Amino acid sequence: MASEEIVMAGFGGQGLLAIGKILAKAAMEDGREVTWMPSYGPEMRGGTCNCIVIIDDEPIGSPVVQKVRSAIVMNKQSIDKFEPTVLPNGLIVVNTSLIDRKVQRADLKSVYVPATEIAEKEGTSKAANIVMLGAYVGVTKIVKPETVEHAIEATFAGKRGSVGEVNLRAFRKGFDIGQQSAS
Amino acid sequence: MAQERLLMKGTEAIAEAAIRAGCNFFFGYPITPQNEIPEYMSRRMPQVGGLYLQAESEVSAINMLYGAGGSGVRVMTSSSSPGVALMSEGFSYIIGSELPVVVVNIMRGGPGLGDIAPSQGDYAQMTKGFGHGDKHAIVLAPSTVQEAVDMMALAFDLADEYRNPVVLIGDGLIGQMMEPVVFPATAPKQFDKSWAATGHKGKDRKIIHSLYLEPEELERHVLKLFRKFDAMEAKEQRHEMFMADDDPPIMICAYGTTARIAKTAMRELRKKGIKVGLFRPITAWPFPNVALEAIVDKTRSFLCIEMNMGQMIDDVRMVVRGRRPVSFYGRTGGVVPTVEEIVKKVIEHNATLGA
Question: Which CATH number is A80's domain given?
């Protein structure tokens, strides 16, 4: 299997660290090596936040990289910051609910996802991050969708009401968008 | 049956591993970037019948370790660079009194208040300067979360075996990152604790102290301690060689997070046809000088890479003793060296070697 380095970036509170953990858990369940590294420091409070997930079959060296194969960007600052860091022929998944510009590089595969609108339709705009994760997994198939669903269930187990169900639906909607854009 | 893999943050994995190693007492004082350790301990210790106590300062915390260690229980603290510096005096008392405790230092940028970013700026503090007097302590330097987990059990065992404190050094990266870990299934080892002060009732009096006012008496005590330190130097040196089977002309010397960044860089360098290996100290003290000595003749040049201005390089130079060039690359202030920087540095270094 291919190795993968992905950065997920947006505002603190959008759930970027959470989808990074879900992806990392799924990769672990698939039997692969994985690291999850958050940005940390005083800049996190109220500002932008990101995490880098690396998935490989070999033991992983550096948990931080300057160039990534894929990026999930959920706000304007993040696309400006991370579009230049994606490797040629890499992937960028853009949250069009908050980003009004197109990807400028022609050498990237770009996937546009109105994540907030889709999540709202499924029950809560808070699941926009999960829609983005779904789209990313739909394009790359870097982990099995079933293992991501397990990780989502585990993450939301014990939460009130149908939160887990809403997030599973949000994931599947995103996954379909990703899969369609991959074909 | 295969053990369950869990995805855990370095700090939380260290805390859980300590509890599974039989550590039932934690004393500490908050400081970033290791606060998840006391946070985790405050939640878990009551569940296992242990005690978590937040002291009013690091000076107080280390002396709580002194007291608890004297009763023979497994006890630890964790802190970060300036907080650890405050523990120096108590740490020396613990060595002088021959007590087994474990101290975790998740290093941050210094000097002074510095910053909360990853750093290896305490290598010298932990291996040479942690506490006053004639003394040593084993210093373990993990480079993955799994290794940190495995080392917590080892740290408590070594502390009990030698009746001497053991230090584990990580940095903000090891502390903050998540990786899959498997906790060892083995039960904690048991040690003779007949020296412990557990109450006088009907038993011999046990006195734990580090005060020897007669110089000859103190000298005898220090010589006794040094028989233990000599045994540690002989038996406890640990290291890893990576991509070193083909006797590469360039050997990187790096430990902890820096070593794993170097490993990624080395894979790229090998693709470019540059033969480079890694010597990774796993024990910062005792420094693995036997293993390093064994490769000096086969190596043309050594490159030390650290997240500081050059501290381990002194230990490397003491082994190499001028027989080969030893050069340095480092970032400081909490700046983490990148894979690209290391690749560039090694290519430049390789060019200077000539044919």
Answer: 3.40.920.10
